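Can anyone check this?
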Amino acid sequence: MATSVSDSRESDVQQGCASASDDETLVERARHDPAAFAMLYQAYVRPVHAFCYRRLGTREAAEDATSQVFVNALAHLGEFESGSFRAWLFTIARHVVIDALRKPLSTLLANADGVVDGAQRPEEAALVAESDRRVRRMLDQLTSEQRDIVLLRLAGLNGAEIAQVLGRSHGSVRAAQFRAYQRLRTIVAETGAPSNE
């Protein structure tokens, strides 16, 4: 059964992500009781993992990066002041992903030799892998900023949160997002890849 990216993103946002006021309450509780951080973890682990996976391309690298994001967030929770916790968390995620991308590929693949996911049949795994490769090739044709904007949007962040993560104005993020989507439409038209339009 296939679901569209927008369906899964909406599901993540509706089911997994708390409201800003809930986040503020949970952050305040977690500052005094680290066990309360578990609720923030549960709310954001799926979208953070999806963002890391889309940037890093392997489940193992995404799992490692996701773990590091939450370790860093817990360690620096006292530094979070106000605003969007989700944007703050994805700022950490973006930095962790950048650090992971700087590592040599051999380091990332060293632990992946011979790992097989028994949950999928080989045919399903091959189709998913090919689809992932196509999407990554398309995203690789965007500028780094455009790619980050698209991936953060897919992770469920809104324009203001993306602007906060990237340290840009909301208007420049909207313009870059528009250009990114235009470029993706052109790429899809040139490659003949199926679209949902």
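Reply from J.R.: I decoded it. The domain at 5-109+121-191 is CATH 1.10.1740.10 (Rna Polymerase Sigma Factor; Chain: A).
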